[in-house]
Amino acid sequence: MTYNKIIECLYDLRDADKVIFKEKKFGIISNNSLGIYHKDLKIIAKDIGQNNELALQLFDSGIYEARLLCSKMFKPKDVTEPLMEKWVKTFENWEICDSFCMGLFSKSEFAIAKILEWSERESQFEKRASFAILASYCMADKTSENELFEQFFLIIKREANDERQYVKKAINWALRNIGKRNIDLNRKAIDVAREILKFESKSAKWIAKNALAELQKENIRMSDYPRDHYRKPIINSVYKM
């Protein structure tokens, strides 16, 4: 499918009522939006397949949904730092931020560097991008040892007082996902949440309480990454204690 055909397809699907609905229901405020649901864009992206050249053209069109398509069509292994910096500065809501972070950034070779770097950014969605990458990276990286993820507790605690809705939600998301990698990280994430609970800010207390509510569930769905270690019988016996 050519660039012009894709744009034509997007305009055929435009729905002004959906633009309003997404803003009211999900807080998705977007410029130059056609009002196409994410699930419909996934179908289009799947039909087209990965294509870096088309993805870049779509992003540069300035059409909101075309940019979302870019996040689904660009190959993660081909992501560069200049592209990441170009894209992250345009994020205007959580939907496009998370689409790029989950689909591309967390799978790129620069994931860890950008988690650390962007956690110090002032812009709401640039900072959210740091923690959205982290939340996704927890599931994308199935082999790294616990020490890699333990380092992120420092930035989670450092930024836990940020009162902005989409930042604190991403911090909470990242903390919960670290705690769901395996039983040892679960215990450490619970300890970190208890530390954050002692902070004075409303944001920190919400992050901690919400994380504890999930991480302490008896039936919590937990992974066993890195698998070669957490499949050992001795770990299973510890888990039952």
What's the quick description here?
The protein is an all-alpha fold and 241 residues long. It has helices at residues 3-12, 16-26, 38-48, 52-60, 64-73, 81-88, 94-103, 111-118, 124-140, 146-150, 152-159, 165-178, 183-197, 202-215, 227-230, 233-239. It has a domain at 110-241: Serine Threonine Protein Phosphatase 5, Tetratricopeptide repeat (Alpha Horseshoe).
Topology:
Layout: H1 3-12, H2 16-26, H3 38-48, H4 52-60, H5 64-73, H6 81-88, H7 94-103, H8 111-118, H9 124-140, H10 146-150, H11 152-159, H12 165-178, H13 183-197, H14 202-215, H15 227-230, H16 233-239
Helix pairs in contact: 3-5, 4-5, 5-7, 7-9, 8-9, 9-12, 12-14, 13-14
What is the count of β-strands? 0
- CATH fold label of the domain at 110-241: Serine Threonine Protein Phosphatase 5, Tetratricopeptide repeat
Number of helices: 16
The overall pLDDT, averaged over residues, is: 93
Strand content is under 5%
Structural class: mainly alpha
Q: Taking Cα atoms only, what radius of gyration do you get, to the nearest Å?
A: 19 Å
Q: What's the main sheet like?
A: none
Helices and strands, in order, run as HHHHHHHHHHHHHHHH
- The CATH superfamily label of the domain at 110-241 reads ARM repeat domains
Low-confidence stretches: 234-241
